[in-house]
Design brief:
It is built from three helices and 21 strands. It is mainly β. 45% of the residues are buried.
Length: 410
């Protein structure tokens, strides 16, 4: 009788996860994010400066450290949205420019199910670990280098976790990734002419995690995500106006880095949790992207990205009756050298602060977090385009973001 009930519960859980996943994918089809990599995947983590790898005690552990889902009893589903306003400004002797600051929502979905009679937990996450949507407009001093760029990247991530002992858990799961990309820049021949490319593709990778809690005061976490590459197949066009508008079948390959995050959590009392994480990304796999065909032959976009670190620190204080508050800071190194800087990536040494407030209830948890990001960068030494433009100048970034989520525990 108990086995039948467990089987029935598991089927109900899978049905709920399937429905929620379908809703997420349909809503994400027209959603874009800002910044190439998006490490911000849950408000409880964002409020702590994304220092969450060694804590990982809500369903977003599927992203931050999948081994953490063994801490979650029963069945839980979490739905959230990361809403960001990207505000970048450019100034140079050749002119000024700023990006469109319209808020952009990025949905997040996580579901977990822990068996009652076996030390196994299962989860499914659907989220956007990468993304880019930047619109500088058509009349910038560097419009022959960059005008608009958009990258949509949706990851469907089932995981399985095993609680090896009371103190040690391990997990692994595949990543099924679907992505679309679009970009546009002016041509040097005459005003109004544009180059554009749109394409889509998919790939498969995996992520894995370890969580070790040898003592109630200490917890250690390790999270790994494999590198992948997507070949985008679509159309490349160069528009000189009728009757000279033309496009051809084209493709380009973009590499996504592997990254490793390690974290240490210290809990001096039941009311406090301090954590420090170190995150490393292997960005040097992205040297360039070549469009296999355009109306004027193959074209190459050079990146020459370099490996980078993210330093993350956060603290959480339990308050009263399930309420809690968090604060955190993260410092993200830039990955793009000045000589190949592209305003569509808008990369800089970024300081990010976070603060949040939430509640853990018997059936429902909720959390809201606010995040800001600030950076200044002076770019020089960039190679000129065919029209003589460069991306050289001063860039100032001041992004604001709100992340909200709700978790239901069945």
């Amino acid at each position: 009788m108990k086995k039948n009930q467990n089987k029935k519960n598991a089927i109900c859980a899978l049905n709920r996860i399937f429905v929620a996943t379908a809703i997420f994918i349909l809503s994400a089809a027209s959603v874009w994010a800002n910044a190439f990599r998006l490490p911000n995947q849950d408000p409880e983590a964002i409020a702590r400066g994304d220092a969450f790898t060694a804590t990982a005690d809500d369903p977003s552990a599927i992203y931050y450290n999948p081994a953490g889902i063994t801490q979650l009893p029963g069945e839980q589903i979490s739905i959230g949205a990361y809403i960001i306003s990207a505000d970048s400004k450019f100034s140079s002797p050749s002119g000024n420019a700023k990006t469109d600051t319209t808020p952009q929502p990025v949905p997040q979905l996580y579901a977990t199910y822990t068996l009652t009679n076996l030390p196994l937990s299962f989860g499914l996450g659907v989220y956007a670990p990468y993304g880019l949507s930047v619109n500088w407009g058509n009349n910038t001093p560097f419009n022959s280098i960059a005008e608009k760029g958009s990258l949509e990247y949706v990851c469907v991530n089932p995981v399985a976790a095993w609680k090896v002992s009371k103190t040690l858990s391990v997990a692994i799961g595949p990543n099924f990734n679907f992505s679309q990309v679009g970009l546009q820049n002016a041509l040097f021949f005459s005003p109004g002419n544009r180059f554009n490319f749109t394409g889509e593709g998919w790939d498969i990778g995996y992520n894995a995690g370890i969580l070790w809690q040898p003592d109630p005061m200490w917890s250690f976490g390790l999270n790994y995500r494999s590198g992948t590459e997507i070949t985008y197949r679509g159309r490349a066009g160069q528009n000189f106006g009728p009757p000279f508008a033309t496009s051809v079948n084209s493709s380009a390959t973009l590499h996504f880095p592997k990254y490793v995050t390690g974290g240490i959590s210290f809990r001096p009392t039941a009311n406090w949790n301090f954590e420090f994480d170190l995150d490393w990304s292997q960005w040097d796999v992205d040297k360039s992207a070549t469009f296999s065909a355009t109306p004027f032959g193959p074209q190459t976009l050079t990146f020459n990205f370099q490996d980078s670190f993210i330093f993350e620190f956060g603290a959480t204080r339990q308050l009263w009756n399930g309420y809690f508050a968090s604060v955190g800071y993260m410092y993200s190194e830039n990955s793009c050298p000045s000589t190949t800087y592209n305003p569509l990536i808008d990369d800089a040494d970024l300081s990010l602060g976070g603060v949040g407030f939430g509640h853990h209830g018997k059936r429902i948890d909720w959390m809201a977090a606010f995040q800001f990001a600030y950076a200044q960068r002076n770019v020089s030494g960039g190679q000129p385009s065919l029209s003589g433009q460069t991306a050289n100048g001063k860039y100032t970034v001041f992004n604001k973001a709100l992340n909200i989520s709700a978790t239901y525990k069945f």
